């Protein structure tokens, strides 16, 4: 007979252990999400500050390239596809769309591995 006063036990056996590819997906996804948020902040500040907001736009571009490279490495994209995505990042709205789609693919991969993913990336990695 089981004790009814035991605390619930979570079944975590389906969760993959941390690996190098999952580390790349998690860190890359966080950078991509922050780059998306910074993209919108730079667009809003461009109206208020003018040309000074270009510094934020450049920081956003660098952050998105690094995050995108890490995510594509973790998702095992071939090198030629990584280069194509980096070139597509130079087109303003298309680059934002690439970041959103890539973040979605990273979320799918992390959920398949058994991790919960929130608005700002993996929660309990």
TrEMBL record:
Lineage top rank: taxon: Bacteria
Keyword Membrane appears in the UniProt entry: yes
Keyword field: Membrane, Transmembrane, Transmembrane helix
Positions with biased composition (Basic and acidic residues): 8-18
Transmembrane regions: 31-59, 79-102
Residue ranges of the region described as Disordered: 1-22
The keyword Membrane belongs to this UniProt entry's keyword annotation: yes
The protein's name in its UniProt record: Transmembrane protein
Organism the protein comes from: Lysobacter panacisoli
Taxonomic lineage from the root: Bacteria, Pseudomonadati, Pseudomonadota, Gammaproteobacteria, Lysobacterales
């Amino acid at each position: 007979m089981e004790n009814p006063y035991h605390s619930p036990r979570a079944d975590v056996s389906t969760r993959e252990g941390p690996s190098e590819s999952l580390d790349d997906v998690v860190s890359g996804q966080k950078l991509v999400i922050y780059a998306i948020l910074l993209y919108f902040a730079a667009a809003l500040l461009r109206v208020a500050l003018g040309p000074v907001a270009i510094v934020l736009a450049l920081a956003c571009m660098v952050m998105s390239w690094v995050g995108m490279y890490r995510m594509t490495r973790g998702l095992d994209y071939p090198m030629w596809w990584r280069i194509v995505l980096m070139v597509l990042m130079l087109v303003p709205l298309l680059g934002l769309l690439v970041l959103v789609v890539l973040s979605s693919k990273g979320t799918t991969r992390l959920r398949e591995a058994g991790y919960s993913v929130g608005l700002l990336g993996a929660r309990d990695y």
